[in-house]
């Protein structure tokens, strides 16, 4: 897990990466911009995938905005084979479908748009990501990459909790590096009769003799491990474990929320889901989490 939760002034960014990707922080991209995390992940073809998460506050200062432009320039100058930058940049004035800014040349939004063009970054999000009733929907959450075919597609899912930002599920065209799992003994397939016979065949008086207690224990453990390994097959399969913070009820509510747009479309034959219906499902999910606080514990996530 990589995050920016050290200080209270930050909203907080959290990035989870599987250990098979061998993630590591990009130290060369550390800067004075308030909230950003860049992680280098290893791919199966020997190349790397650099994933950057960024949050820019709507009240960001001019100095912080300049640091963001410097960060984009520094990230692209490294010429990473695969680079993707995602986050909430809070530039509602930019029309990403047309690639134009409705502000003046000295406006932070215009400078940011020009910086992405100068860095040859491709912005893939074209559907509004934030919505509030009686307000215009905006594209605030963006996904940039240095290659057009790196992002396969982006699915917009309902928001989590009471957030007014939708959830973005970004599918990438890259192969992760598979790490060979360590084998372990499969005791439920062990030949315990053979283990028992081998232990009975050992001359323990000769093996242990008059050794000190500590040496006796080491000798016994070594013999036991050797006999056990010889009669027990190995396996690389692990037991499937459900996340400790997700019980069956919470999972059902979450899946129902994700399936809501397609279900409503088939039922009402409309292309737009009403906000009250979405809020109803979100409130049910929040109520379930509040009634089971011990089940929803982010510290248990892995």
UniProtKB/TrEMBL annotation:
Alphabetical GO biological process terms: cell adhesion involved in heart morphogenesis; larval heart development
SUPFAM superfamilies found in the cross-reference section: DNase I-like
Superkingdom: Eukaryota
TM annotation in the entry: none
One Pfam family per UniProt: Exo_endo_phos_2
GO cellular component: a single term: extracellular matrix
Molecular function GO labels: catalytic activity
Domain Endonuclease/exonuclease/phosphatase stretches: 51-167
UniProt signal peptide: none
Protein name listed in UniProt: Endonuclease/exonuclease/phosphatase domain-containing protein
């Amino acid at each position: 897990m990589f995050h920016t939760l050290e200080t209270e002034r930050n909203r907080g960014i959290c990035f989870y990466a599987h250990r098979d990707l061998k993630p590591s922080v990009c130290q060369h991209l550390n800067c004075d911009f308030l909230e950003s995390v860049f992680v280098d992940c290893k791919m199966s073809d020997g190349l790397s995938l650099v994933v950057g998460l960024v949050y820019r506050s709507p009240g960001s200062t001019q100095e912080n905005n300049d640091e963001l432009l410097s960060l984009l320039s520094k990230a692209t100058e490294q010429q990473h084979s695969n680079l993707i930058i995602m986050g909430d940049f809070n530039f509602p004035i930019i029309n990403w479908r047309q690639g134009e800014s409705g502000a003046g040349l000295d406006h932070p939004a215009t400078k940011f748009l020009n910086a992405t063009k100068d860095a040859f970054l491709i912005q893939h999000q074209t559907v509004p990501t934030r919505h509030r009733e009686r307000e215009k929907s905006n594209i605030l959450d963006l996904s940039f990459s240095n290659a057009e075919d790196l992002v396969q597609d982006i699915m917009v899912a309902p928001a989590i909790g009471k957030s007014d930002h939708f959830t973005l599920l970004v599918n990438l065209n890259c192969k992760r590096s598979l790490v060979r799992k360590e084998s372990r003994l499969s005791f439920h397939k062990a030949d315990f009769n053979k283990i028992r016979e081998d232990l009975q065949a050992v001359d323990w008086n000769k093996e242990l003799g008059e050794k000190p207690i500590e040496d006796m224990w080491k000798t016994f453990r070594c013999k036991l491990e050797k006999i056990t390994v010889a009669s027990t097959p190995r396996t690389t399969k692990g037991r499937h474990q459900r996340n400790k913070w997700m019980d069956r009820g919470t999972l059902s509510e979450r899946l129902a929320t994700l399936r809501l747009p397609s279900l409503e479309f088939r039922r009402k034959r409309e292309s737009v889901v009403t906000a009250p219906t979405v809020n109803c499902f979100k409130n049910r999910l929040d109520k379930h989490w509040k009634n089971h606080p011990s089940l929803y514990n982010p510290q248990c996530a892995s």
